[in-house]
Amino acid sequence: MTSLRGLIVTCAAGALSFGPLLAPCVFAQQTPSHGSSTTTQAAAPLTAAQLAARRGGPDTSIFAPLLLDPSNVYRSGSGAPGPKYWQQRADYDLAATLDTATKTVHGTMTLRYTNNSPDTLPLLWLQTEQNAFRPNSLAALILGAESGTVGETAGDLFDRVTQTVDGAEVTLTLEEHETVSKLMLARPVAPGQSVTVHVAWHFAVPPSGAGRMGRDGGLYEVAQWYPRVAVYDDLKGWNTEPYITNGEFYCEYGDFTLALTVPAGYIVAATGTLDNPRDVLTPTQISRLAKAATSEIPVAIVTAAELTNGQARPTTQGTLTWKFHATNVRDAAWAAAPNYQWDASSWRGILAQSFYRPSAAATWSDAADQARMSVQEYSERWFLYPYPQVSVVEGVAPGMEYPMLAMEANASTTQELYNVITHEVGHNWFPMIVGSNERVHFWQDEGLNTFINTFSEARRYPADGDQMQRAAKERAMVEQAMASNTDRPIETAPDRMGLHTVGLMEYYKTSVGLQLLRQEIVGPASFDAAFKTYIQRWAYRHPTPSDFYRTMENITGESLDWFFREWFVENPHFDQAVDSVQSHRVGDTAVVRVVYGNHARGVLPLRVRLTFNDKSTQEIVYPVQVWFMNSLRYTRTYQFVGKTVMRVDVDPERRFPDIDRTNNSWVAR
User: Fold this and answer.
1) For position 147, what pLDDT does the model report?
2) 8-62+573-667 has which fold?
3) Rg of the chain's alpha carbons, rounded to an integer?
4) Residue 142 and residue 144: Cα distance in Å, rounded?
5) Measuring CA to CA, how many Å separate 279 from each of 2, 309, 325?
6) Residue 50 in this model has a pLDDT that exceeds 60
7) Who has greater pLDDT, 339 or 465?
8) pTM
9) Considering only the top CATH level, what class is 100-252?
10) Cα separations (Å) of 406 from 27, 355, 379, 392?
11) Which of 122, 296, 363, 501 could be a cystine partner for 188, CB 3.0 to 4.6 Å?
12) Residue 634 has pLDDT above 60, yes or no
């Protein structure tokens, strides 16, 4: 449906105007005709919130202006980056050696950090997230034995940390604070200047890294593996929230090189483009990759037979170093196994690859095509995928995302696997392209991604329901949580929720809210234009919720403070009702007065169906602004010639959440 605007009203001056209902206006009187309705609305009494506002008190109504981050030269009131928006840059040269005997990664890093802020920085904060897996870590103390992912290793162990000063290496001291560590610089980095830091460290790979990495037999999935620099932004300076494993990541953008040394029998997938295929692949595999680069039909790069007969690797003796590079990404991760089958296909030159063990082949043989379709769907609908490849890897992580690399466990069915793959691939848009702070505003990546997943799932498996039918299933789950009072505000840090609540609120409730906004409030065309603009504005940048809210309002042209307040900031419930129906006849005309109720704080548009004695129906949609003057009751008087109203239903198609549907209907006795 289109946006519900342009409601005709007659004001005190007697002129017609278009806009939301404002006192002292009343609805225009219409001439009755057969099958038509006459509607009147008396000016409702002021609510307590409106009276308080007139007396100078705070407006606490659902329609009060939403308090957002102040706009300034860095972030504009329109939701776009301001004329002086700045962002730090972090470029990494990373090298790692996998020691399978000790299950340890030894790494070296050169970090070139560019200070684009107006501040001189005497120190850097680094994310040292392997420390979450130490015994008695903060994560272990909070999550306890239930997580099964903490207390497994000694965490990050640093061998050397230096800073380049005037061409010489100066030793630095790293002060560890759990999963962040403070690095005092030998020379502060001034605005517009850069600093180069070198680090050597090692860590034992945990068997189960909070569902985000780990190992299984000879397979390794390696992430949160290098000391990433924390984000320094215009909102709070250094962002040093601890890694407790529910909350995810907030990283700076830059260019990466990776040199990954593994046993020669291993096959590696990683963020970035493989730079030395002749060193680590056979000529046959190189030829197959070239074919896959122009084929939508998956091509087998490494087959199960080749894993068995020894032809999968150019050599099995010693080690091989796989080299990759990635441009303008916010992180890098990798996976390696001695028995990875490898398939690849492409869309518009973008390589879509899958890596999986033979034990998973029954479902994973379709994975490369699933990755390809996911890239195509999100590119065509929202924003063109900017990277040269995407890889999906099977392993111990049930589902986790990194730039150009998605980790998924095996699934019981191909369709179940697609739902996971398209979700993790979708994260390349949120937050890999649109780089929000996942540790604080989890919904800005998980919820927005879950929303776009409904389109992808419907495209791949249309027989199981279109996009709106899938959205309805999510809405039913959220409605049940509201009815049982187990819901929470979306704008809650994920580490303050249990895993089940995080999934329901940050993923599904966000998706349901965006579906409501798109279908019922601003209309699909207007929503899509605003959503695309948000991605374009904040690609490779760090948006906040305020930037999202403002962009959606400015591009749709709608005032949406009430919606963002009730759906993201607060946690009101929704309960629309038919409170009363009174009817009498004047000649052959039925005059029907209906009082619609809103029994909860949350407000939504009002969908009504009137059913008449001749079995005909009339559908009416009232915009949310009808609750402006009295958010508890809304009264309409209708006139129908030659008809009798037999039934009045609110939200008959169950398009809105509602915690009590027993009061949604009135039936004539």
Assistant:
1) 54
2) Immunoglobulin-like (2.60.40)
3) 29
4) 6
5) 57, 20, 15
6) no
7) 339
8) 0.90
9) mainly beta
10) 55, 10, 17, 5
11) 122
12) yes
